[in-house]
Structure formats: C-alpha cells, structure tokens
Specification:
heterodimer; A: alpha/beta; seven-stranded parallel β-sheet; two-stranded antiparallel sheet; B: alpha+beta; three-stranded mixed β-sheet; three-stranded antiparallel β-sheet; 2 helices; elongated
Amino acid sequence: MCATCGCSGAVGAESAMLGVHEHGHSHDHDHHHGHEHDHDHGHEDPHAAAGPDSTVARTVLLEQEILGKNRLLAERNRGWLEGREIFAVNLMSSPGSGKTTLLERTLRDLGKQVVVSVIEGDQETRLDAERIRGAGARVVQINTGTGCHLDAQMLGRALHELEPAVGSLLFVENVGNLVCPALFDLGESTRVVIASTTEGEDKPLKYPHMFRAADLIVLNKVDLLPHLTFDVERFTAHVRLVNPTAKVLQVSASRGDGLPEWYRWLAARRPSARPSS
Amino acid sequence: MHELSISQGIVESVCEAVPEGKVLAVTVEIGQLSGVVADSVRFCFDACAQGTRVEGARLDIVDVPGRGRCGSCNREMAMPELVTRCPCGNPFLDILGGRELRIRAVEVT
C-alpha cells in the first residue's frame, strides 16, 4: 500500500510534481514493492503533458524498507543454515557480561558430543577468537571496525569462510552492545541475551528492544550474588515487562552453576539433536 | 551507533532506486518504536551522502506514532514506548504500528 496516500499499488511510481503527493492518477495495475522498474506508467498524470524536463523536480515514490536488504540476506543465511541443520545462536550482551567465558566453558563441556564452531564479532582485535580457538573450536573473527553490530552480510561472508559442519552448533558472538545488534536480523536460529549480576537490574527496561527480541535471557555471574546488592527477582520482573515469554536462566560460567540447564535448552532446540533424527 | 548503518542504507537504496538525476530531498518514515533516533539519522545522513548524488539533499523525517493492543482487554492505544502499560494493568502490549523504517519518496531533478 502507498503510505503517502493509502492507495493500493503505485509503488515505485513516478509523479512529476513539487513535493506534494497529488492523486490525479489512477492505480490500476499490480506490481511488487521496492524493486526498480522502468516501464512506462499508465498513470494519468496531470503534469505529464508538459513532457520530461530535467530541470523540474519530480517525486519518485519508493516505499522501500531501509533494512530490506539486510532482511533478505538474513533470510538467505537462515535458509542456508536450516538446509544444513545447523543451529545458530546469536549471543548478545553488553561488554563484560561474560559471553566469551560462557562460550569457552560451553565448548569444553559440549565439544565432545557435538561439533561446535564460533563466529566472533568485535570492533577490534583477535583476542576472543584466540580464546575460543584455545577451547578447541573452529572460529572466524569478524572485526567490524567502527561498526557497532554484526549484520546479515557479515554473517553470510563468515559462514562461507567457516563452513560449519552439517548438524553442528554455531555460536555467533555479536559485538558487545545492548542497543544496535537488536535491530539487525542475521538469519540466526535463536537469540540469546546475556546479562550479568554486576550490571543493574534495570537493564531490561533500559534496553527493551534487545530484551524483547530475545528467546532466552542468561543471567551470568550468579556466583557473585553474595557480594552484590543485585536482586534476581527484581531483574526477572523487569524482563517480564518487556518479554513475558522468554526463559531466564541463572548461571555462573566460571563456577558452572546452571550450565546443565543451558545445555538442555540448547539440545532441545537443535534439530539434529532431537530424537527423531 | 546503528543510525550510521541506517543512514548508509538510505543513501545506498536511493542511489540504486533512482539511477540518474540529482536527489533534492528524501522522505523517510521512522517509527516511534523502531529503536532508531531520528536526530542521529539526520546527523549521519549528510556525512553518508557526501560524494554521492544524494549529497546536499534535504532529509524529511516523518515520525510514525507507536500503537499497541492489549492482549488482556483487547484495547488499542497509543504506545509511545516499548514498555507501555494498559490501563487494565497488563504491562505488555502487542505492537500494531511504530516499527517503520521506510524510505517513502525521493525528489529528483
């Protein structure tokens, strides 16, 4: 639908005019949204009689999603992953929540049962990739430079470089940031947000886009609770306000609390880990 | 700052969709619940447009208000923030509108 006037059709249509969306023309033909097309329109355009004039401004209606290209690439990644029964987990959190520590521990604990590989996103350095490699997994590092998030194109390139095995488990460690990664679908199978007890209980309310988009919230560093004023119930109540259905798992990646439940959660969702296959 | 990527996306999409002519203005819709800050897009847009046919173009931003529906009482209401509580007490609304991030139109010569 044309959002300018509410008419059906006419997307990508041109009408020669100066800033005002007039409707002297009719929309009686179907065509798809957002693509380029150069056919002549059957619009009865009040200005058309004047003929094309390169000095006159004309308005081109686009009605195009700004993130449309990312969405298409994400769907391509999703299809590629599903075809290979690869379960891809997009891990998102603020810096310092313990993403890499949780990954290292997960790799050590699950590495003998399932092939696990990792795509590491950071603005700079290969430090995390080296830690992951040290834990025994294949890893590709993406440095985003000034970029504050991974996008579907970056993931697509990394997938081709990494070539994760059929039926394997893939972790995508997004750039440490609770804002930007929420907006960019990568084509992942599931989204997991990691928060930690050393952050505030109000993080879900401050970053609602991130927490709303999550399938699972992992609360890390619960071993530190005796030394902190962090109130787990309060945190969980805040999660419920932005995401009533996401499960909240309490873990300590360094001490091992709650990790069996984390592994069960992963296994229950991984297509090749289900009993039928 | 994801608004930089958003601004780059706008400039690239416009250049692809309008292969010739000088771009004078771009109209985009930014929903209140999209997670994108209009002022930041404005800030980044000029920089992203430099050296392209969009350089110097005016950026018109249409704010699309957030709308939500309560799953408990089925009431529809304005939803200015993601965390908006229904008067019936339900703290979680389904989003009906306000997530838009769309290029509406381009003015070219």
